[in-house]
TrEMBL record:
Pfam families: Ribonuc_L-PSP. It comes from Aquincola agrisoli. It is an enzyme of class 3 (hydrolase). This is RidA family protein. Its EC number is 3.5.-.-.
Length: 127
């Protein structure tokens, strides 16, 4: 059975849930979406920070912490941004890091959006 996790972000005009929890696993994907639903299309560092804040919010809403994240997939429109994204990523994650794959893509849904992150986490059972 799956549970939709309320992460505090508004629904967008697309058929998806921000985060889904099932059998102790969390499935979530985020971009630089502000609390009002608008998209940050500014510098990649700001987009990465907002995206990771949203990811942290989702994991915490599901009952976990970023230490529970097991895999991260980063989609970016310019692979030259990897160094800047990594610097922000280190503000949120520390060793031992989740498994990760980073991919350059031709584009994302919103023009100006430079990255999107998909993450999976194992959420501990409530005590």
């Amino acid at each position: 059975m799956k549970e939709i996790v309320d992460v505090g972000l508004p629904p967008l005009n697309q058929p998806f849930s921000w985060a889904v929890k099932s059998a102790g696993l969390l499935f979530t994907a985020h971009g630089p979406v502000r609390p009002d639903g608008s998209i940050d299309t500014g510098p990649v560092e700001a987009q990465a920070r907002l995206t990771l804040v949203n990811l942290r919010r989702a994991v915490e809403a599901a009952g976990g912490t970023l230490a529970d994240v097991t895999q991260v997939l980063i989609y970016m429109t310019d692979v030259q941004d990897m160094k800047a994204i990594d610097a922000v990523y280190r503000e949120f994650f520390e060793a031992p890091y989740p498994n990760r794959s980073s991919m350059g893509v031709a584009g994302l849904v919103v023009p100006g959006m430079k990255l999107e992150i998909v993450a999976y986490a194992v959420i501990p059972a409530a005590a």
